[in-house]
Amino acid sequence: MSRTFKKRFLIILISVIIAVFAILMIINETNLFKHDQTHTFDEAVQAQTGEGMLNTKEDNGRFVNASKEDVRRAMIIKKHNHNINYMDISEKVPMDKKEVNQILKGKGIFENKGSTFLKAQDQYGVNVLYLISHALIETGNGRSDLAKGIPYKGKHYYNFYGIGAFDENALKHGHSYAKQQKWTSPEKAIMGGASFVRKEYFDKEQLSLYQMRWNPKNPGQHQYASDIDWDTKIASVMDHYYQKYGIKKDHIRKNYYKQ
């Protein structure tokens, strides 16, 4: 057997092994997705709009109850949008401190906090552009009362992710949660918010904005917000930065429901 033939045979063999491995990975991933497809879309809408469920929408600067049709429209998987709603945001984005601080320039309490956002991404495995975009929306670009810090007994408490800020009295409840967690600096609030998202959502397999908002595996349960456009608002801000910095969107999933 000639050396050339052996070399070609080895290359072919390696190529076949890689191809088989890739096929097995695709099959395994498909089976995993099927495992968590617990409801049809219509069943999910029904569960999401059942008795006692709170779904709101923004109307002229205030939140009002959303109709069942509003909810259905918001839950529909869009085929031709920026896709970030359905992207795995539990993975890191390759950005440096200078780029992140450029994003945060003029953003109130967040200005020059790039190193903290990147530290939160590295420590907890939470997409830094998600962390920034979510914080900007929840805090009015870093200028809301919660963003500035609520004074209490000589200390200021910060909450940048609306955690515990229930809609009927968001400021009061959000402040209480920040006190409970001892978020007495912007840095603690950023790190604490990233830790919360990791433990309460990513570790429970809610890896995309869509899953965090609608929880298709268990509709109507364990959802981040009542605003039916919550995921789309954050995704829109993220998409702006993804385009600006030419970042590739990876691991997009849209098959959440049984057919």
UniProtKB/TrEMBL annotation:
Keyword Membrane recorded: yes
Keywords: Membrane, Transmembrane, Transmembrane helix
InterPro entries: MGlyc_endo_b_GlcNAc-like_dom
Start and end residues of each Mannosyl-glycoprotein endo-beta-N-acetylglucosamidase-like domain: 102-250
Transmembrane portions of the chain: 9-27
This protein's record includes keyword Cell membrane: no
Family: In the N-terminal section; belongs to the N-acetylmuramoyl-L-alanine amidase 2 family.
Protein name: N-acetylglucosaminidase
Organism ancestry: Bacteria, Bacillati, Bacillota, Bacilli, Bacillales
